[in-house]
């Protein structure tokens, strides 16, 4: 096994918790979170194998990007929180950068549907917000309005 694979197993043990609902991230999204936090590359296939070895079964293994019943744990040991966003302001910033939902999804590693749903709902996961704002070159505080859950 490679060093990245061993690191992924350790990261999953520390950062992923079982949940009854399906995680908002696919294996591809979880892999990108792992890569950002550890500065180590891992293929989607190796990450999926690490999830299997860690006891997480995919909802549909015929899909290229698997979904699991789990959640990502924040630095405080709780599932990540959502943040209320100013959707109009985010859309304005995207237009300012001539950015479409599809191109933003492609560049950040999140699905277009997930970003669209978050903007339409007015709530965005903290990790997604930070990634989107980082890509757009803006501070999350320009988009964020308030925290929702698990942040004190």
Strand-helix topology:
Layout lengths: L2 H13 E3 L8 H12 L5 H10 L16 E3 L9 E4 L1 H10 L4 H8 L3 H10 L1 E3 H11 L7 E4 L5
Can you characterise this structure?
The chain is mainly alpha-helical. It has two domains: about 70 residues, no CATH class; about 70 residues, Orthogonal Bundle (434 Repressor (Amino-terminal Domain)). Helices cover about 50% and strands about 10% of the residues. The protein is built from seven helices and five strands; from the N terminus they run αβααββαααβαβ. The strands form two sheets. A three-stranded antiparallel beta sheet has the order 4-3-5. A two-stranded antiparallel sheet has the order 1-2. α1 packs across α3, α2 packs across α3 and α5 packs across α6. The longest helix is centred in the first third of the chain and has 13 residues. The chain starts with a helix and ends in a 5-residue tail after the last strand.
């Amino acid at each position: 096994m490679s060093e990245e694979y061993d690191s992924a197993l350790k990261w999953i043990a520390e950062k992923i918790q079982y949940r009854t609902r399906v995680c908002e991230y696919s294996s591809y999204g979880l892999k990108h979170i792992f890569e950002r936090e550890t500065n180590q590359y891992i293929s989607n296939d190796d990450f999926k194998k690490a999830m299997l070895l860690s006891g997480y079964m995919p909802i549909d293994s015929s899909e290229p990007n698997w979904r699991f019943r789990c959640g990502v744990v924040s630095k405080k040991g709780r599932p990540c929180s959502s943040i209320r966003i100013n959707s109009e302001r985010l859309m304005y910033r995207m237009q300012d950068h001539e950015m479409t939902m599809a191109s933003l999804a492609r560049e950040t590693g999140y699905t277009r549907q997930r970003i669209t749903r978050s903007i339409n709902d007015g709530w965005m996961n903290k990790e997604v917000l930070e990634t989107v704002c980082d890509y757009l070159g803006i501070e999350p505080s320009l988009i964020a309005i308030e925290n929702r859950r698990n942040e004190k």
